[in-house]
């Protein structure tokens, strides 16, 4: 059973520390409703309009449960009411219906959002809590995706809109809309042809804006128009000449989709759940790149606050081959690499801690250091790839705060 640990980093905790900074043990469990340990973060979040919550991989139980507690704290103490998870912009409508108390099964809602990395017990616990909170809340928490991938629901919304408004035009475009990439992957030359066709649909909708996009029809028109734009975003990913350009495109489009949602919900505070590589304020290791967090920082300044996550060793859930079976398994992380950010953080304490990087930081974190980050899938040689990776960051430039977990465990696949 996890328990609250208080660890204060101050001159004397380590000779490596210049001044300030207070790693604080947190309670990585959704089982305890007590939020008193998080009150010390009140000043850290006081000016935040958007909070980015990262993760060094997409399958660690402790990352998910720390974020669950931070989200509960932000909702109940700081009035945050919109939760965005790294999934397609239109892919989380069933999850939103579930947390708003509608007759939707959580298992179906999790499956509907397409991203199997979130089909875990720990993530499910967050949505269960949101549904319970909304039963009595005057202002309810809502849920959305913001990514440009897996836009099947958006495409269906666009098709339904065009079919209703102009059946003849829809019949001309139906085959194209069925063929376009929803994931951003595919043949580049085919994507280029589809891209030109999507531009023609955009021009058609632009011509209808004055008649369809006003008065009581405005909301439906804007929804269909944004669904088209997300199809174009996935198409731009498929057309990208290099993975680096594709990554830049994706993060820019994520930011544009969040701005689209924000424009429709003025004054709302937002929580963004995604990988460290998205919520960080930097380049995500891409030359001349700009990631989601950098776009949000340019847009909001001090109104954007983010928390990254790091780990020492343990296991994490990812899709890959194990004993000849390709599925989600628990994979070992290996030990922290010598000279890496993980090793520097690991040297600061043996229990999980939060470090405020807006204050003075340990000297060992001041340099650009290699990192071990993974997405939702791993190859057979991922540990060797990590050891040879050139991906490095200066942590205090990327994040306002970081939560470090010395020993992690794999998230559990959700079992209804």
Give keywords.
10 strands; 43% helix; two-stranded antiparallel ribbon; 15 helices; 416 residues; alpha/beta; eight-stranded mixed beta sheet
Task: Itemize the secondary structure elements and their pairings.
Elements: H1 42-45, E1 50-53, H2 61-78, E2 82-88, H3 93-99, H4 106-112, H5 121-136, E3 142-147, H6 152-165, H7 167-179, H8 188-212, H9 218-239, H10 243-263, E4 270-273, H11 276-279, H12 292-300, E5 304-322, E6 325-332, H13 341-346, E7 353-356, E8 369-370, H14 382-388, E9 392-393, H15 395-398, E10 401-408
Parallel strand pairs: 1-4, 1-5, 2-3, 2-4, 5-10
Antiparallel strand pairs: 5-6, 7-10, 8-9
Helix pairs in contact: 2-5, 3-4, 6-7, 6-9, 8-9, 9-10, 10-12
* Residues in helix, %: 40-55%
Q: How would you characterize the largest beta sheet?
A: 8 strands, mixed
Number of helices: 15
Percentage of residues in DSSP E strands: 15-25%
What is the CA-based Rg, rounded? 22 Å
Number of strands: 10
Unreliable sequence segments: 1-21
Q: What structural category arises from helix and sheet content?
A: alpha/beta
Task: Describe it.
The protein has 416 residues and is α/β, with parallel strands linked by helices. Among the domains are: 1-33 and 41-147 and 286-293 and 301-306 and 383-416, no CATH class; 152-251, no CATH class. It contains 15 helices and ten strands. Strand 5 (304-322) and strand 6 (325-332) form a beta hairpin. The longest helix has 25 residues, at 188-212.
Summarize the structure.
It contains 15 helices and 10 strands. The chain has 416 residues and is of the alpha/beta class.
């Amino acid at each position: 059973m996890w328990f609250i640990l208080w660890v204060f980093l101050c001159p004397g905790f380590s000779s490596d520390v210049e001044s300030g900074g207070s790693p604080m043990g947190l309670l990585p469990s959704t089982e305890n409703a007590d939020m008193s340990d998080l009150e010390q973060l009140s000043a850290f979040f006081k000016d935040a309009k958007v909070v980015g919550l990262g993760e060094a991989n997409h399958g660690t139980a402790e990352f998910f449960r720390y974020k669950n507690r931070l989200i509960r704290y932000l909702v109940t103490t700081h009035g945050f009411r919109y939760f965005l998870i790294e999934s397609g912009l239109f892919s989380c409508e069933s999850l939103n219906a579930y947390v708003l108390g509608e007759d939707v099964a959580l298992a179906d809602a999790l499956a509907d959002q397409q991203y199997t990395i979130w089909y875990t017990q720990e993530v499910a616990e967050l949505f269960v809590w949101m549904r319970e909170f909304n039963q009595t809340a005057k202002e309810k928490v809502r849920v959305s995706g913001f990514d440009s991938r897996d836009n099947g629901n958006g495409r269906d919304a666009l098709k339904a809109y065009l079919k209703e408004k102009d059946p003849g035009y829809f019949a001309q475009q139906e085959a194209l809309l069925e063929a376009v990439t929803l994931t951003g992957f595919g043949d580049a030359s085919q994507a280029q042809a589809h891209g030109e066709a999507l531009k023609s649909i955009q021009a058609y909708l632009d011509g209808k804006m004055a008649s369809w996009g006003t008065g009581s029809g405005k909301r439906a028109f804007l929804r269909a128009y944004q669904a088209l734009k997300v199809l174009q975003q996935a198409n731009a990913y498929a057309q990208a000449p290099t993975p680096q350009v594709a990554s830049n495109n994706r993060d820019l489009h994520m930011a544009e989709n969040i701005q689209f949602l924000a424009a429709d919900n003025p004054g709302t505070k937002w929580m963004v759940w995604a990988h460290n590589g998205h919520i960080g304020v930097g380049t995500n290791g891409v030359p001349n790149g700009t990631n989601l967090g950098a776009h949000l920082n340019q847009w909001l300044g001090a109104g954007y606050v983010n928390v990254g996550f790091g780990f020492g060793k343990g296991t994490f859930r990812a899709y890959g081959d194990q004993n000849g079976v390709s599925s989600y398994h628990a994979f070992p992380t290996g030990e922290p690499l010598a000279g890496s950010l993980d090793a520097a953080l690991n040297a600061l304490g043996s229990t999980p801690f939060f470090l405020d990087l807006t204050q003075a930081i340990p000297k060992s974190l001041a340099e650009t250091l290699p990192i071990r980050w993974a997405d939702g899938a791993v190859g057979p040689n991922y540990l060797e790839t990590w050891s040879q990776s050139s991906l490095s960051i200066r942590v205090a430039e990327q994040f306002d705060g970081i939560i470090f977990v010395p020993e992690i465990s794999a998230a559990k696949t959700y079992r209804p």
